[in-house]
Amino acid sequence: MATQQQQSAIKGAKVLMVGAGGIGCELLKTLALSGFEDIHIIDMDTIEVSNLNRQFLFRRSHVGQSKAKVARDAVLRFRPHINIRSYHANVKNPEFDVDFFKQFDVVLNGLDNLDARRHVNRLCLAADVPLVESGTTGFLGQVTVHIKGKTECYECQTKPAPKTYPVCTITSTPTKFVHCIVWAKDLLFAKLFGDKNQDNDLNVRSNNSASSSKESEDVFERSEDEDIEQYGRKIYDHVFGSNIEAALSNEETWKNRRRPRPIYSKDVLPESLTQQNGSTQNCSVTDGDSVVSVMPSLGLKNPQELWGLTQNSLVFIEALKLFFAKRKKEIGHLTFDKDDQLAVEFVTAAANIRAESFGIPLHSLFEAKGIAGNIVHAVATTNAIIAGLIVIEAIKVLKKDVDKFRMTYCLEHPSKKLLLMPIEPYEPNPACYVCSKTPLVLEINTRKSKLRDLVDRIVKAKLGMNLPLIMHGNSLLYEVGDDLDDIMVANYNANLEKYLSELPSPILNGSSLTVEDLQQELSCKINVKHREEFDEEKEPEGMVLSGWTQSPATNGESAATSNNENPVDVTDSSSGSETASKKRKLSETEPSNHNKETENVESEDDDIMEVENPMMVSKKKIRVE
Amino acid sequence: MDGEELTEQETALYDRQIRVWGANAQRRLTKAHILVSGIKGTVAEFCKNIVLAGVGSVTLMDDRLANMEALNANFLIPPDENVYSGKTVAEICSDSLKDFNPMVRVSVEKGDLSMLGTDFFEQFDVVVIGYGSRATKKYVNEKCRKLKKRVAFYTVDCRDSCGEIFVDLQDYKYTKKTLEEMVECELNFPSFQEAISVPWKPIPRRTAKLYFAMRVIEVFEESEGRKHGECSLLDLARVLEIKKQLCEANSVSESHIPDILLERLITGTTEFPPVCAIVGGILAQEVIKAVSGKGDPLKNFFYYDGEDGKGVMEDISDSFTS
């Protein structure tokens, strides 16, 4: 197999791997076995127990240590003479600038969050370094190749952004279990145990009267000597009882919807729990790691079991009690963490009680944890297959075998007999704002939207810029950087709070903005159109960005159900380049199950590197994070 | 079989994969006993995958003495003579595999597969023959089919940048998920002998050429008394001769099998690690599916070719003639 030319191309190559998790471990191993001798690897994550089912370079004793470093050490053990350089760092750090990327012959991504992928995509474009992208979820996976000017860049086809839900659905009219989870996690849990200074929509109601909302605020305050169980029941009755009753009083809301039923603790639970279950001192503390949990004391052993209303209610109250009894110091500073057993128990219970109230099917702790924690289901085999495919593409890139580049899809069920389906890469999308510099159009209410909204929702969230710079004509409206003096910073902060039409250089209908990220070397033009009204349900952000979704290839059809022509030319394997041209294939459907499956969820592994998400505390939108 | 619960430790460790295939499937996996022979790169990958998946036990067979050559494409063998000298490949791999998942029982069995009786194979739920000769594959497959208990049988072979997997699940009942519900299905697999004896003429034109090429190589190695991969370009003439004979016997033209493909298969004697990862991954997925009884199994051949990048399933049984 390995010709001389191939061997020397591999031996002399300098490769960058981004991500040392599921795909990363398999990839590093395969690269080393294939003869690669100079590999750099970046990962900011540390090892967790749940990684060990597939990230085979790690052992239990490594939990807590740097993934990049341990992966390096493990691989050196069977290939001691190669060079592996590990970075325990966030790939978005300024040290990984265009010059850093330029030193590599190819970049291989083993990430599973959209944000970092877009960032790396831009740096590879700026450095003109080939990028091999990949992703897996369960049994599905894909590998794609991106060469500046020759193929699509990673962003030529839009990837679905993480799901968001309108506020009213979460606060008042849930119809799915995930709505209840978001309510329990981002509203109730946050209100009870999180930062008190954060805005919280928990008590938002359609008929907001000043006095009733003040009462609601007081309910959540707990006085020093207030009995914890009484407090818990008070909260329970408030959120599941009186809040629901208040919501019911608004007839309009329920005209075409199923009415929720109020639930009060006295109807579900015995008068005093302490008599039933003993004091909270009986809670189980396991592992010496003091994993605080209520399930054992309630006799609930199986996380896959469905709890009834009573059991959920017990968990709710007991979990709340346990937070106050054992973790008092953390109250006021907690954020939901899927690895926090007690938090998961509480959120599961709360979501289930709410679901019961609204007639939505209940879920087990196992299921709830997956939803609340955005857990990506993952197995070793798919990662191994994808890693093999990545190396094969990487070698083609190094040999400059341009005609042989392929996007390869790993399917769960064969489509036209194919389990591994290669298709030719597409040409760059001329409408791609990242690699083809096409201007975007933003519809926004310039009188009611502030610059901050534009920066957070559009520039950072949608355009994926980290350190943006916003210019209107010659006027610099906003920028970030270490080298700014206090006056400038104050000036920019002031600008953030101004309505667009009231900025020193007013942004009005027809204005044209330039937004840039110097690190990513990305510059975009945005043409602004003023619009008065936005649909609260369909356009919850109050602004619409277009011009970044204009790719003609269809998305959203899975290969397994597709009846279209097999995009791959199924002739002899020995035939030459039948379609040497890489024209955009308009009539064919890409098996884009990868779009739905692998991109839609934030990772649990490389998740720590996620940019602080301003949407979490937005008044207008709640996102499942 | 699905009586006992998974332990807390198992649930925590296997959380991510339980979300893929469910707790029941995981329970079945922890009770499965796998026999693996012929541990080169692809099979090493396979073993790593099933050990991580948490099978009950893995029994390794490979009496070759570990040496520098065995290291190629096999990350289970540390490149330290002090460690591997004097040990068999199976022994070294066993030590490494135990490390990946202490909950899996990994052991070594010495001896020649083709000398073992039916009783031996009864202890297993799955048998995987790596890089076996045609005779060995036939022999073991027949033994497995003789047993009352259904033993899932697989062969795997990687040469150059190609790979072949063969699957025999005999009479296989399983469930699969459709959009609305769980459906019960049944498939009937031909034996290894039946699958390689299918007349070539009725087989559809678009069938992977590798199927035919591998049959030629099988005959070559058997008639010349060679072990797997014991061949070179010097053998091409003989191989092409055999191809001619087989094509004639099957009334198909010689263009049925590209010469260049045969040339690749006999010259590419060292394994290509990316292909090992790919084929080892597919094989492991199949074994996991068969043990859990969930999901459409591969029926009955799988081919991967690094040249065109396709991973294709071929259903080769004598139904073509009926």
Which protein chains make the most extensive interface, counting residues with beta carbons within 8 Å of the other chain's beta carbons?
A: A-B, 61 and 66 residues
Overall 3D shape of chain B = globular
Q: First CA to last CA of chain B: what distance?
A: 38 Å
Overall strand count of chain B: 10
The proportion of strand residues of chain A reads 5-15%
Shape summary of chain A: globular
Q: By helix and strand content of chain A, what is the structural category?
A: alpha/beta
Mean pLDDT of chain B: 92
Summarize the amount of helix of chain A as a percent range: 25-40%
Query: How much helix is in the residues of chain B?
Result: 40-55%
What does this structure look like?
Chain B: It is found in: Nucleus. Chain B: It comes from Arabidopsis thaliana x Arabidopsis arenosa. Chain B: One of its GO terms (molecular function) is SUMO activating enzyme activity. Chain B: This is Ubiquitin-like 1-activating enzyme E1A. Chain B: One of its GO terms (cellular component) is SUMO activating enzyme complex. Chain A: InterPro entries: ThiF/MoeB/HesA (IPR045886), ThiF_NAD_FAD-bd (IPR000594), UAE_UbL_dom (IPR028077), Uba2 (IPR030661), UBA_E1_SCCH (IPR019572). The complex is a heterodimer of chains A (625) and B (322). Chain A is of the alpha/beta class. In chain A, 33% of the residues lie in helices and 15% in strands. In chain A, strands 3-2-1-4-5-6-10-11 form an eight-stranded mixed beta sheet, sandwiched between helices. A six-stranded mixed beta sheet of chain A has the order 14-13-15-16-12-17. In chain A, helix 2 packs across helix 15, helix 7 crosses helix 13 and helix 12 packs antiparallel against helix 13. Chain B is of the alpha/beta class. Chain B has two domains: 231 residues, NAD(P)-binding Rossmann-like Domain (Rossmann fold, 3-Layer(aba) Sandwich), CATH 3.40.50.720; 73 residues, no CATH class. Chain B has an eight-stranded mixed beta sheet, sandwiched between helices. In chain B, helix 3 runs parallel beside helix 6, helix 3 crosses helix 13 and helix 10 packs across helix 12. The longest helix of chain B is centred in the C-terminal third of the chain and has 20 residues. The two termini of chain B are 38 Å apart. The mean pLDDT of chain B is 92. Classes of the chains: A alpha/beta (625), B alpha/beta (322). Chains A and B meet through helix 2, helix 15, strand 10 and strand 11 of A and helix 1, helix 2, helix 3, helix 12 and helix 13 of B.
